[in-house]
Amino acid sequence: MMRTLLLFALLLFAATAPLQADDQLCLRCHGMQSMAYLDPATGGLRNLAINPQAMAASSHGSLRCRSCHGPGFEAYPHFEEAKRESLHCLECHKGNDRFPYALFEAIEKGFTRSHHARALPERFFCSSCHDPHVFHGLFQTRVEDVPRQVRQDNTICLQCHDNNERIKDLTGRIMPMLQRSHAWLPDPARHWQAVRCVECHTGSTRPQDHFILDKSLALRDCVACHSRNSMLTGKLYLYQATEERQKIGFVNALVLNNAYVIGMTRNLWLDWASLILLAVTVLVLAGHGLARWLSNRKRGAA
User: Fold this and answer.
1) Prior bond to 77 cis, omega within 30?
2) Any long-range contacts for 138-144 (C-beta under 8 Å, 24+ apart)?
3) Which ranges constitute the DSSP H helices of 48-137?
4) pLDDT tens per residue across span 1-58
C-alpha cells in the first residue's frame, strides 16, 4: 500500500513539476477534471479543468498562473469580479521583442473587423478560440509541419462549428451541418484534412490573418489554390515556398516532399520531359504523314 501511494505521489509530482510551486495551489482545484461552474450568460456548464501536462507543453508553459490571472484570484473561492475576467493577451504580445509589434497589431485589426467580432462583440476574445493552456504558436517552417498546423487550426474552428450545442449557446440558433453548407466543395472531408478553414474564410493572403469573412463572402474559386500561382504559397506553404525560391528559384518542394496540390505543384524536370515526349510524338506523326504523302504522290505519277 505504501509503495502504491509513493508511486502515485511521484507520478503526480512528475506531471506537475514544470509548474511553479504556488501554481500547485491552483491545481488543487483546477487539476480536477470535474472542475466547472454554471455560466450565467449561457446557462451551461463551463469547464475550468487544466491539464498540467498539456499546459507545460504549450507555448505558455513557462508562465505562472498569476502572469495572466491578475488580482482577485488570491481568495478561495475567487471573487465574483475575478470570475468575469477577460484575458488581455495583447498586453504581453504587443510591443514584446519576441513578437513583432506589427504582426499582432495586424492580428488585432483583422480580428476587430472579422465576422465573429462584429456579430458577437461581447462574447469573442482571443481566448474564445485560442485556449491559452494548450495553445501552440506553430506556424511551420517545414512542409512536414503542415498536417499538424492544419489539424490544430481546424480544431479551433470545429470546436464551435461542429458542435450544435455550443453554436446555440453563442448565437441562439442552430447552424446548418458543415457537410450541407460545404456541399459545393468536392470531397469536403479531404479538404479539411489538407487545408485550413481560414484559407477560404479570410479576407487576405497573409498566413496569420484573423479577418474572418461572412460565409457569403468566403472564397469558392478552386483555381485560387489549384494553380501555379496558388494562394497557398502565400499562406499555408509560405515559409516552404520562400525557402525553395531562395534555394533553386522555383516552388518545387511540395512534390519533392510529402505534400501535393493538383494544379499547384510543378516539377520542371517532369515538365521538360513531357514537352520533349510531346515534341517527339509530333515529329513521328509528321514524319509518318509526310512519308505517306510522298508515297501516294509517287503512285499517282506512275
Assistant:
1) yes
2) 139/207, 139/208, 139/239, 140/239, 140/240, 141/239, 141/240, 141/243, 142/239, 142/240, 143/237, 143/240, 143/253, 143/254, 143/257, 143/258, 143/259, 144/257, 144/258
3) 52-57, 65-68, 80-83, 90-93, 101-113, 115-119, 126-129
4) 444 443 334 334 434 444 466 788 888 888 888 888 777 666 667 788 888 888 888 8
E strand or H helix at 270: helix 268-301
Q: How many CB atoms lie within 10 A of CB 187?
A: 9
Rounded-to-integer distance, Cα 261 and Cα 230, Å: 9
The 8-class DSSP code of residue 212 comes to B
Cα gap 140→196, rounded to integer Å: 13
Measure the CA–CA gap between 123 and 119, rounded to whole angstroms: 9
SS3 162: coil
pTM: 0.67
Q: Which residue from 55, 244, 58, 230 is spatially nearest to 138, judged by alpha carbons?
A: 58
Q: What is the pLDDT of residues 112-161, one digit of tens each?
A: 999 999 988 888 888 888 888 888 876 655 677 788 888 988 999 998 88
Alpha carbons 223 and 234: distance in angstroms, whole number:
15
The span from the CA of 1 to the CA of 195, in Å, is: 51
Rounded-to-5 percentages of helix, strand, coil across the chain = 55, 5, 45
40 burial class (0-12, 13-18, 19+ CB within 10 angstroms)? exposed
Produce one character per residue of 49-58: b if its CB has 16 or more CB atoms within 10 Å, e if not.
ebbbeebbeb
For residue 181, the tally of other CB atoms under 10 A from its CB is 14
Cα dihedral sign, 22-61-211-151: negative
How far apart, in whole angstroms, are the C-alpha atoms of residue 13 and residue 275?
65
